[in-house]
Amino acid sequence: MAILNGELTLEQTKLLPSESDIEFYEQHGWYKSAFILPEEVINLALEGAEKFYRGERDAILKTKDGFVDWTPHNSQGLRNNEFVSLQKHELRQLALNPVLGAIAAKLTRSSEIRLLDDQLISKPPKTNTPIGWHTDRSYWATCSSDKLLTAWIPLLDCDESLGPLVVIDGSHHWGGLEHMRLFNDSNLEKLEAEFIQQGKEVVKVPMVLKKGQVSFHNCWTVHGSYANSSNQTRTAMSIHYQDRENHYRPYWDLQGKEVHMFDEQLCRKLPNGDPDFSDPLVFPVVWSASSKEQSFCSSI
Description:
The chain has seven helices and eleven strands. It has helices at residues 10-13, 19-28, 39-53, 89-95, 98-108, 188-197, 263-266, and strands at 30-32, 79-82, 112-123, 131-134, 149-154, 165-168, 204-206, 215-218, 223-225, 234-243, 285-288. Helix 3 packs across helix 4 (89-95). It starts with 9 loop residues before the first helix and ends in a 12-residue tail after the last strand. The model is unreliable at 1-6 and 292-299 (pLDDT under 50).
């Protein structure tokens, strides 16, 4: 599906969520798309993922410490690599897909969507690879916006046996989730019991998707995933997006320690010294009402 003059084609606009879809997202904190990504787009991303795992890079981050970056020297369980779209061309193409940006803009009622972060996550077959209940927003404490959202894109048909993303319906309305950074806590049942004891309704919704489908969830939606019990490797990209209004804000944890996120080390600074969350090299515009022209840089 080609882009004409920086605008979505008529075919692409038909893939965007309706007003009732937007209202569903606002109420439930998640949304499943129809088949929006052609097979060749997914296959190209999968090819890029395989090259990435072999150590091939098209660009090098200016710092190698402070973020999750699985290598073959690590354990053979869960593979989690961040900022892959800044390092591999094929993965960047997926992250900057304008249809994804346009859907994100519709769901958040925003006039512009920029990239914020991304992760390439792979679960080998028959491995105990759960991901703990967490909220994305709790990891992005220095972001000002509550409209941040994530597109989750499996690179193959993904049923429950592969350990897909699971969201807790309506949990973005709970509140008090600022410190739920439990991505690596594999005891999902324990936290579920705590939620129930607190009087919260725990309705788990697995994002069972066919190849080419995408799910989106709000930055405050509690989510995680279970182990991959299948005979296939489950590889997926989580692409995190920000709206036009998002900017840096200082933030302190409960102990009074100032909190930072790794993204701040990659981007340029504003005149007052704050990180610029609109830096086009690190946080490029994916979709806007005016233009979507972006280029791939050779070194970040």
